[in-house]
Automatic annotation (TrEMBL):
Domain 4Fe-4S ferredoxin-type per the UniProt entry, residue ranges: 306-336
Molecular functions per Gene Ontology: 4 iron, 4 sulfur cluster binding; metal ion binding
Keyword 4Fe-4S: yes
The organism of origin for this protein: Rhodopila globiformis
PANTHER family (alphabetical): LACTATE UTILIZATION PROTEIN B (PTHR47153:SF2)
Pfam families in UniProt: Fer4_8, LUD_dom
Any one GO BP annotation for this protein: lactate metabolic process
Sorted UniProt keywords: 4Fe-4S, Electron transport, Iron, Iron-sulfur, Metal-binding, Repeat, Transport
InterPro entries registered for this protein in UniProt: 4Fe4S_Fe-S-bd, 4Fe4S_Fe_S_CS, FTHF_cligase-like_sf, Helical_ferredxn, LUD_dom, LutB/LldF, NagB/RpiA_transferase-like
The keyword Repeat is assigned to this record: yes
Protein name as catalogued: (Fe-S)-binding protein
Alphabetical list of Gene3D superfamilies matching this protein: Alpha-helical ferredoxin, NagB/RpiA/CoA transferase-like
Amino acid sequence: MHIATSSAFKENASKALSNSGLQKALARSGPSFIARRAAAAAALPEFERLRDTARDIKNHALANLDFYLEAYETKVLASGGKVHWCADAGEARDAVLAICQAAGARTVTKGKSMIGEEIAINDHLEQHGIRPVETDLGEYIIQLRHELPSHIIAPAFHLNMEDWEAAFRKAHTDLPADRTFRERRDVLIEARTKLRSQFLVADVGITGANFLIAETGSSVIVTNEGNGDLTQTLPRVHIVLASIEKCVPTLEDATSLLRVLARSATGQDFSVYTTFSTGPRRPGDLDGPAEYHVVLIDNGRSAMLGTDFQDMLRCIRCAACMNHCPVYGAVGGHAYGWVYPGPMGAVLTPGLIGVDKAEHLPNASTFCGKCESVCPVRIPLPKLMRHWRERAFERHLTPGATRTNLALWAFLARRPALYRMATRAAALGLGWMGRKTGRFAHLPLASGWTGGRDLPAPEGDTFFARYARQQRTQQAQ
């Protein structure tokens, strides 16, 4: 598994803040997600009740995951499909490769799949002479640019129109010199023109799955471009890549989750295409694959069951948390260094690759709580990030200076009288030192703050002292 730069979040964030093109893209696209989600939620009176229902469905499925996965496999087999159980990314890559080689595949089309990014399936196929072609518009341009997605539902979130045009001109050598790209429609036409032939020649189609339904053995995929349908119906072989926590008990459960998914993700009532696939083509069907394979991937999920982090497995990948996160909104997705950015990535990534490789991510938060307030399945993301911080501290992964300062603070906090005396002395001393300007441009032991902004000088006494005076005044009255 290739882990790019999760351990270098601070350096990545610094570069992102000085990247004018990225900042332009974030400023243009970010607010629209927030406004659309708010409007969609307000238009549905039962939205908050649906969030509770969605949480409960996922909790029940996770508590009985072994039962529902076995039931799902039984239904897939009954419909003529095959299920491949994979413990880790390596087994999943080998399973997909074996299916493609058995089919004699030379070209594979792909519908957007974050689990595909997680196991790096494209690189693996290319190394064995099979050409993967991303068909989602955002994923397609990312593939041309040899980049990771920067957002889980809008992979090219970090790009501007000029970036799209530059990538097309480099890859599409027959593009006329006078062809211009001024709006999204221009991009769509150019991409669809190139992708149409790929859909027709592909030997295998690979899609992700938003949900797996134990009751019917169906996989569900939602898209807005129709590429998912073409990917899974035109090729002779359809492969579904899905992690084990995507399994839900019934069709009714899946539809309840779908009602909060699109509203939370893009502000739509429903995605343009919501497609249910159940097994290979049956006699009398007009289209569909001759073979249907489901590659079920654990890759660290079962280790999260029954732990403080099980709630993270409720995630339905809507990206509402990152759309509302001030940190993600400032630095974008690539700063997080791997597949899953934003608050959900700050919790999920340490669970999948180890907190030793992603120690910075749980600290990439203001803890404003906005992520939890908009999560459609009510994942307590700030609490889970605190748990990872605790694990990192216990394993001595935090910097020595941080540990020393926290130990000093803890020593004082356990001694209230000494704490009040020390904080009052610090406030009065800093207030005297900053009496002329009212702020500090540079301050020893506070360079992490003053490196990017001034530190206001304290004014007056400490909170404890003011509160004590107020209490005495009230009692005297």
